[in-house]
Design a protein that fits this description.
70% of the residues lie in helices and 0% in strands. It is mainly α.
Length: 151
């Protein structure tokens, strides 16, 4: 198992190096004037850092970084429903609009996956939707589809 961890970690490091090289080729720009390669460069650096840490953990022989995905009691329903919800989120974006889709998706994540109570789920979903609205629409000036609410 440790051998597979090491191999997959080295693959991540190599992939991160390729991402960083191509990001630099695209031109990262600067923080005040970002280029098309800035975000991929940051992601590549983060992936490379995590890969190097995982290589170090696997070289040490520790089982600290070993994923327990296949253990008994794995919540397969959650492992399948989370990626499905991430695909469904942009599909309903134009139909229902930013506010409703974000509210329902965060409600699903908080309540359905996270196991929060319904009152906490509603409060957290409303707060997340409102903060997202403030950040993206108010401060950054991005306009998202309004959907059926048309507000």
């Amino acid at each position: 198992m440790i051998r597979y961890d090491r191999m997959s970690s080295l693959f991540c490091v190599a992939l991160a190096a390729a991402i960083c090289v191509e990001s630099i080729r695209l031109g990262p720009g600067s923080f005040s004037n970002p280029g098309p390669g800035l975000l991929p460069l940051g992601c590549g650096l983060l992936l490379g850092f995590m890969g190097v840490v995982q290589v170090a953990v696997s070289m040490k022989g520790s089982r600290l970084g070993q994923a327990l995905l296949w253990k008994p009691g794995t919540r397969w329903k959650h492992l399948i429903s989370i990626p499905v919800s991430l695909v469904a989120y942009p599909l309903f974006f134009d139909i229902l609009g930013f506010h409703l889709v974000t509210f329902f998706w965060t409600g699903f994540m908080y309540g359905g996956v996270g196991g929060m109570g319904w009152r906490s789920t509603v409060i957290a979903s409303v707060a997340t939707t409102f903060v997202s609205y403030l950040l993206f629409e108010y401060f950054l000036g991005l306009r998202f589809p309004r959907g059926i609410l048309n507000v």
